[in-house]
Amino acid sequence: MTETSLALAVNGREHHLRERLVAYSPADVPGRGWSAVDSVAVVGLGYVGLPTAFGLCEAALHVTGIDTSDSRLAAIERGEVDLPECEQARLVDAVAAGGLRLTGDPAVLGEADAVIICVPTPVDEQHTPDPMALNQACATVVAHAHQGQTIILTSTSFVGTTRSLLTEPLEQRGLTVGTDVHVAFSPERIDPGNPEHHHSRTPRIVGGATAACATRAASVIENVTDSVYLVGSPEAAELTKLYENIFRAVTLALANEFSDICAHFGLDPIEVTLAAGTKPYGFLAGFPGPGVGGHCIPCDPHYLLWQLRQHEQAAPLIEQTMRSIERRPERVVERALQVLAEADVEPARARVLLVGVSYKAGVRDLRESPALPILSGLARHGVHVAYHDPLLPHVPLQDGTRLTNQEAPDARQWDLAVIHTVHPEIDYRWVRDCARVLDATYRFDLVPHRQLV
Q1: Which of 148, 181, 325, 415 is the most exposed place for a label (fewest CB within 10 A)?
Q2: What mean pLDDT do residues 221-250 have?
Q3: Is the pLDDT of residue 311 over 80?
Q4: Are 39 and 114 in contact (CB under 8 A)?
């Protein structure tokens, strides 16, 4: 168990609170009385499930990856997935050697000592949670559960999901949770594209339906991380995950708002943020950008908001945060049109290139990317839009238009380049030759004549 530094803005009092953390250690459980886990089934092989399965393989466990998408399974088998380049070859080797078995057949769940559920929990265009995939996955796992099995849910969802979708249905099947089967929630903590936050070095939280459930689940999760901490219930673990992502949402919304304040005073928001970040307590920095994308921050808070609304419980700060995040891409559109207007370029004859479209640097992921509403918003004003992103060959817009990556853009052909996502190890020096550059990342220093959102 490695030492975990608490991220608390509480004037140093985290040292006094550290004792409140309950760390799991096998040494604290004398005479376990159960066989060590040998085989694990991972349900869902997306951005969470695949690294989880890969990590379990490296722990010398027999791992079966289950996914309902045949194309996804085929892509994993070929190694054509969004993993760091150094891991792709190891993934192919693991599949070829049989360390990671791939299948779409849920019947193999009955063979596993442990099951880890890693399926997406998106929201629709109205921000209504869509837990259909999670409901189906949990029902399938319950149907194939057997005595002695440990079942761990990792997907972010409503508080009470583990109890309603796993614990109660298992009890209805006649399996006593905590004795016959063990159930827990352990929220994923995957940071795609960031090698500094490898899952093995990122602490995990486990909340079991019983104390025995928590211990069993922790004995599985410890295979993919150096640190495991226990909380008193699945509900505590579920709300922990929501709190983490909502905190990040609030921080980013504030950073974006502060960037507009900095613009009012003619100041650089990055300079101000870094200066504030020198304070060793009471401040946790966030950086402004074109908006917030990905699988967590734009979606997960809506699960809590939806649930609270069912009980007429208000959360005004979170609600305002999510409205601010949703409006951010439109702010980029407004600023782009302003830059064009200052150059006497009318929208109907303007050509705008978006540089980078994935939601995050270093990943091939368009989910909830601010680039989509930015491109669509500019197009609605009559602007001819295009994009350059070597990681994504095609981009579908909201009106059904399908754009193709501009592989080698001629900087002189564009009235404006909008910097959205800057991928590592890609040469962007050509952007210097663009007549006008709007930097929505606030950190694109290659172009002296750039303007900020």
Answers
A1: 148
A2: 96
A3: yes
A4: yes
Q: Which two tokens stand for residue 27?
A: 């040494």
- The angle at the Cα of 195, spanning 194 to 201, to the nearest 5 degrees, equals 110
pLDDT in tens, 33-85: 555 789 999 999 998 999 899 889 988 899 999 999 999 999 998 888 877 66
Spatial distance between the Cα atoms of 406 and 421, rounded to a whole number of angstroms: 15
Give the whole-angstrom CA distance, residue 57 versus residue 52.
9
* pLDDT beyond 80 at 10: no
Reported as a single tens digit per residue, the pLDDT across 363-397 is 999 999 999 999 999 999 999 999 999 999 999 99
Provide the token pair at 50: 């695949």
316 near 382, Cβ under 8 Å?
A: no
How do residues 119-134 score in pLDDT, each as one tens digit? 999 999 899 999 999 9
Which residue ranges form the domains of the chain, and what is each CATH number?
A: 23-232 (3.40.50.720)
Q: Can you name the residues that pair with 287 across neighbouring β-strands?
A: none
Task: Name the nearest CA neighbour of 440 among 340, 357, 326.
Answer: 357
C-alpha distances out from residue 143 to 169, 171, 411, 430, Å:
9, 12, 58, 57
CA distance 377 to 332: 9
The catalytic residues are 296
Distance CA(371)–CA(396), nearest Å, equals: 11
User: What tokens were used for 208?
Assistant: 């079991």
Q: Which tokens go with 136?
A: 């189906």
Q: What is the DSSP letter of 46?
A: S
Which DSSP string corresponds to 95-140?
HHTTSEEEES-GGGGGG-SEEEE-----B-TT--B--HHHHHHHHH
